[in-house]
Specification:
Layout: H1 2-12, H2 21-58, H3 67-91, H4 95-124, H5 132-144, H6 149-166, H7 174-237, H8 248-265, E1 269-276, H9 279-286, H10 288-305, E2 312-317, E3 320-326, H11 330-347, H12 354-357, E4 362-369, H13 377-400
Antiparallel strand pairs: 1-3, 1-4, 2-3
Helix pairs in contact: 2-3, 2-4, 3-4, 4-5, 4-6, 5-7, 6-7, 9-10, 10-11
């Protein structure tokens, strides 16, 4: 007995995962409201056609029994379906907010159609003895509406009890009455099975869709993290670990990019090459850590000079730095080089030996070219290097005095 009750419960109660319940309720409401509006319009059209066809066939107004009863039923269906269409249209403007109201309206809608079709089939007993309309409605609502099987069971039971009680009141043989009751009952059982299959299939499809969405979101999240990680790795691969500025590899890429951009626009491209003249002596007298500190401070001075996003500071190698300056004239580049030399000397003033302090100098060479087919990147670098060593010779001459 317990197993039987459990089987009945499992048949009529199909669970929905708690984390999907609200979304599932909204999805069901959307489906039902779309189908209900379509069915409302279809039934209005069908009843109008039935009224016109009946008048055309009988060639008179439907004012005598049983025609008057059919006319009343047709007009009732048209009026009620018009009201339902208007209600569903209003509720459909905010399905999330009205999901519960849509469910209630859908159940009433389903019940009305079943009762109406049962009433028409009872009227048919006066003329044809058929219950085709009632049987069609039983199957149709199971196919069109989307509700838990228990909702269909309650609705079918209420309508069928009314139908069974009312059926013997209409003239027909006992055999026909019994056959109609049996056939309609079998149709109801079949329809409940169909309704359950559709509802469970809808739940399964919904869960599969949500699972796919969650996996896609997880994949997208992982891809985003990988993209961020790759960007960080790429940045690290182009960053000098000691100074935090771009390294030599990044310098080659950036200079090539700016060269091509200036070439297309016929703009000047300036390059500064800079180093600390006495780095070897600093390392020998104060140690490599102090020398590294000087290199970091040199990078800081150069970075502070970068005002535009297109201007780039790179560590070229050892204590040598490069500053890429697109669209800067030769005069401006030379002026900036001399300013940076003064600023760098002041920034690197970290020593306690007053005699050695007087010998610290920074050399910066500047070169400018308008990129063209007749010039090259290597020529620009060589020109900046040549100017750098000219400045270094000048500084050495001053320190020797």
């Amino acid at each position: 007995m317990r197993l039987f009750l459990k089987a009945i419960k499992n048949f009529f109660v199909i669970p929905v995962p708690d984390n999907y319940k609200e979304e599932f309720k909204i999805a069901v409401a959307k489906t039902n409201i779309t189908n209900a509006k379509a069915v409302s319009l279809a039934l209005i059209l069908m009843e109008v056609i039935m009224i016109i066809a009946s008048i055309f066939i009988k060639k008179e107004l439907l004012l005598k029994p049983p025609d008057i009863y059919y006319l009343i039923m047709y007009l009732l269906m048209i009026a009620v379906m018009a009201v339902f269409w208007k209600v569903f249209t209003a509720l459909g403007k905010d399905i999330v907010k009205n999901s519960r109201k849509i469910t209630c309206a859908g159940v009433v809608f389903l019940s009305f159609i079943l009762f109406w079709c049962a009433g028409i089939s009872l009227l048919d007993q006066l003329s044809y003895g058929q219950i085709v309309i009632y049987l069609s409605a039983i199957i149709s609502v199971a196919v069109v509406a989307l509700f838990p099987p228990l909702v269909f069971l309650i609705n079918y039971a209420a309508v069928h009890i009314f139908f069974i009680i009312a059926l013997p009141s209409f003239p027909q043989s006992d055999t026909t009455t019994f056959g109609n009751i049996i056939n309609s009952t079998l149709f109801i059982i079949l329809s409940i099975i169909i309704a359950r299959m559709r509802y469970k299939e809808y739940i399964d499809d919904f869960k599969n869709i949500k699972t796919i969405q969650e996996k896609n979101e997880e994949i997208e999240r992982i891809n985003t993290e990988l993209k961020t990680l790759n960007q960080e790795l790429e940045k690290l691969s182009q960053t000098d670990s000691l100074t935090g500025v771009f390294n030599r590899s990044a310098f080659d890429d950036i200079l090539k990019r700016e060269w091509n951009r200036c070439k297309r626009s016929s703009m000047p491209l300036s390059l500064l090459m800079a180093d600390i003249d006495q780095l070897k002596e600093i390392n020998d007298n104060y140690g490599h850590q102090t020398g590294d500190d000087c290199i970091r401070k040199m990078a800081k001075v150069l970075t502070s000079s970068v005002k535009r996003s297109s201007e780039t500071v790179c560590r070229y190698g050892g204590d040598e730095f490069a500053v890429i300056l697109p669209n800067i004239t030769e005069e401006k580049a030379e002026e900036l080089a001399r300013l940076l030399e003064d600023n760098a000397v002041k920034e690197i003033d970290i020593y306690t030996d007053p005699d050695f302090l007087t010998h610290i100098t920074v050399s910066i060479g500047a070169a400018t070219v308008i990129p063209s087919d007749n010039s090259s990147i290597s020529e620009l670098i060589n020109a900046a290097d040549k100017k750098l060593y000219e400045i270094k010779k000048k500084h050495r001459g001053l320190t020797e005095i």
